[in-house]
Design brief:
By secondary structure, the chain is an alpha+beta fold. It has one domain: Roll (SH3 type barrels). The radius of gyration is 19 Å and the shape is globular.
Length: about 190
Amino acid sequence: MIEKRIDLSKLIEQGDIYKDIKLFRNIQVSEDDVSIDEVEFKYVVVLSQTCDLERIYDKDPNSVLSVLVAPLFLLEQFKSGTYLDFVGIQTEEIKKDRALKPYIDGQKPRYYVVNLDDETKLQNSLIDSFVVDFKYFFTADMSQFSEEKYVSSIKPFYREELSHNFASYLSRIGIPIISNNDKLKDD
């Protein structure tokens, strides 16, 4: 499912996995101080289209200002319900492998599983498979990306699948949550 790109002349492509990318959640500037609330993700996957990323160094109005990425969460942390601890959210634990099957099969549009075999993990110095939770995508400044931070890339077929799943998640029709009190007011 993943491979190392040999030619890194294009620094960033869709489906690339990078390490140690920061999300700057809040920056506050006062007269005497600058306070930065940041989260550093061990791994992220690039969601931006490669054709857009080729314009990184353009000087025209079509140049790209940042890279759209999504954190890669370790599968074991996802299964244990602790993958969102960094924002204080505890999710439901997945205790049985069959309960993970809908996530792997793409039946849960919010998630994408990057399932790695042992050989791939070893070749890429990775310890676990990953889960992408599309709800937590963000943009990262291009200055954070370098050859030293490059880990590997999702193969083209799976890259297209990732892109399609992300687009499906974003384009879903949102239905407001209606509480019982709201229902009573309408009656």
